[in-house]
Amino acid sequence: MVTVTNAHGQVSEARSRLLATATRIFYAEGIHAVGVDRIVAEAKVTRATLYRHFPGKDDLIVSYLREADRAIRSQVDTIVGRGMPAPDALRAVAGSIADGIRSPGFRGCAFLNAAAEYPDPAHPVHQAVLAHRRWFSRTITELLGRIGDAPAEPAARHVVMLRDGAMATGCLSDPEPICETFLEGVESLLRQRTAGAGS
């Protein structure tokens, strides 16, 4: 369950339960399809409690995406923090993405799903999606910048597109060949960069 603390560092059990419930249902069924009454009922709280913690549904959705963002950042930071060579760190990040695609209940990328439901770039939900994607692209660019001499940005865009494609199709059919294709795509980019560095 998601653990959330208030301004005094105390755990707010009701807020944690609301966010965990919303996260589970939003991801499994879509955001627009789920109303606050359903979340309140399944979280076993009152509507007043929901609105005390989240002034509106959009605030709850943004918090859901921020929690997903924090979880992914923590996972990637742990990998990068191991101090392994950049190619191995990128392989490990790609491997963690593939593991997620293979996991039970996988329904695609929470951020791409949210962007499809909230296409207005000015909407707070869309802004939360863009913030996550900027961080991910920057992280991949930094890793690739430590491999070879070619500009890292085009290769990073390639990795992000490979990841997006794998996440979008991984829930539509057998995820195994999709993950294999994604991981081979990352390996191919790494081979290109390391070959260029050795020439």
TrEMBL record:
Coiled coil: none annotated. Residues 12-72 form the HTH tetR-type domain. Pfam families: TetR_N (PF00440). It comes from the Bacteria. One of its GO terms (molecular function) is DNA-binding transcription factor activity. InterPro entries: Homeodomain-like_sf, HTH-type_TetR-like_transc_reg, HTH_TetR, Tet_transcr_reg_TetR-rel_C_sf. Keywords: DNA-binding. Signal peptide: none annotated. Residues 35-54 bind DNA. PANTHER family: HTH-TYPE TRANSCRIPTIONAL REGULATOR RUTR, HTH-TYPE TRANSCRIPTIONAL REPRESSOR BDCR. This is TetR family transcriptional regulator. It comes from Saccharothrix saharensis. The lineage of its organism: Bacteria, Bacillati, Actinomycetota, Actinomycetes, Pseudonocardiales.
